[in-house]
């Protein structure tokens, strides 16, 4: 039985890393219970990088291949590109008419980002960036989604979505839009190989479906207990990145590894080798699916075309209702 409709999305950032798997695993599960729409937010990518659009198309493909290799199923969910379904932009325009600027200016993500990017010398004081949450509201409400799996950082945008839905419904005396609720994704426990937050920009990430060589190189570069100089020095696994990964990828052996590390009975090289082997095995099915899709690029185009079609049909229906309510 369907529990309702879900819409979620990501900006096209290219290949994803294993820290994203907790979000994707959750999407894969939700496919069984909800009518799902998963979207590549390419218009949203423009809000912060309008001056260089050269990578958006390639990044879209790479990210969709990761979604599919993680188990998103085009037979169950609509997997599509935001800009291909023009009703997102149309509904965004309608919402922009009825939203007070003050709502957007006080959105915490807006203030944070303008400041953060400003410090990096990037000026994003644009009309489009101010409207970022409204475009997101349109993404969600065009499918009348009642649930949105997101990370905590997106909660202000969801709050805005509910406010916009309420305002539209109140203003035109209708019940057209639901007030969607967040489904909070579990936070990934994985640090990057250097112990900081995992991020492609720090080059401390491991890609979904990484090759065996890449896994070995990245695991070898992981930070261990810095107090351990010689192989038989006693170590402290609690301060070691390798150990954090062992807990996730090699749970059966972690107790033993911790004890041996504390006694100086296992060296870091051997410990890393064990981890790399386990990670390689976990990554193998992702890698196979990724390679199959890379070898058959037409398949990805077909999936996205089918997703566009399914999403467009639903979006067109809502947009017709929106116009009808407005008396157009
Ligand atoms: N703003 C989201 C992010 O940066 C991406 C996004 C765009 C989104 N539209 C959405 C997420 C609609 C959920 C629902 O991660
Ligand atoms: Fe880390 Fe393993 Fe070395 Fe201990 S033995 S410090 S857990 S890599």
Could you explain how this protein is built, in words?
The protein has helices at residues 21-30, 42-48, 56-69, 87-98, 101-105, 108-119, 127-130, 132-141, 155-171, 212-220, 241-249, 254-263, 268-295, 297-326, and strands spanning 5-10, 35-40, 78-81, 147-150, 181-184. With 328 residues, it is mainly α. The protein has two domains: 5-189 and 297-326, Rossmann fold, CATH 3.40.50; 200-289, Tyrosyl-Transfer RNA Synthetase. The strands form two sheets. It has a three-stranded parallel β-sheet with strand order 1-2-3. Strand 1 (5-10), helix 1 (21-30) and strand 2 form a beta-alpha-beta unit. Helix 3 packs across helix 13 and helix 10 runs antiparallel to helix 13. 35% of the residues are buried. The mean pLDDT is 95. Bound molecules: tryptophan and iron/sulfur cluster. Iron/sulfur cluster binds at residues 224-225, 228, 235, 237, 240, 242-243, 257, 261, 266, 268, 271-272.
């Amino acid at each position: 039985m369907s529990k309702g409709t879900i819409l979620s999305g990501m900006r096209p950032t290219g290949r994803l890393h294993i820290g994203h798997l907790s979000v994707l695993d959750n999407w894969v599960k939700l496919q069984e219970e909800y009518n799902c729409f998963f979207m590549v937010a390419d218009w949203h990518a423009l809000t912060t990088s309008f001056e260089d659009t050269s990578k958006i198309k390639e990044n879209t493909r790479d990210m969709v291949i990761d979604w599919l290799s993680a188990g998103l199923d085009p037979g169950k969910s609509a997997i599509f590109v935001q800009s291909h379904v023009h009703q997102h932009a149309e509904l965004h325009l309608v919402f922009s008419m009825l939203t007070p600027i003050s709502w957007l200016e006080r959105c915490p993500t807006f203030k944070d980002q303008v400041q953060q990017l400003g410090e990096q010398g990037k000026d994003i004081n644009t009309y489009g960036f101010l409207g970022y949450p409204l475009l997101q509201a349109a993404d969600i409400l065009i499918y009348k989604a009642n649930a949105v799996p997101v990370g905590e950082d997106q909660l202000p945008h969801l709050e805005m979505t509910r406010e916009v839905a309420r305002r539209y419904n109140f203003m035109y005396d209708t019940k057209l839009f639901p007030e969607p609720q967040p489904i909070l994704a579990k936070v990934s426990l994985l640090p990057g190989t250097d112990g900081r937050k995992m991020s492609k920009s720090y080059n401390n990430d491991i890609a979904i479906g990484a090759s065996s060589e890449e896994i070995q190189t990245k695991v070898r570069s992981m930070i261990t207990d810095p107090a351990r100089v010689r192989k038989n020095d006693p170590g402290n696994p609690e301060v070691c990145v390798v150990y954090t990964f062992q807990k996730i990828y090699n749970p059966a052996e972690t107790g033993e590894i911790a004890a041996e590390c504390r006694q100086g009975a296992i060296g870091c090289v051997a410990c890393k080798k064990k981890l790399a082997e386990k990670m390689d095995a976990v990554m193998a099915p992702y890698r196979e699916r990724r390679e199959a899709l890379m070898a058959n690029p037409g398949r990805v185009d077909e999936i996205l075309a089918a997703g566009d079609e399914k999403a467009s049909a639903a979006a067109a229906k809502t947009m017709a209702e929106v116009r009808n309510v407005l008396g157009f």
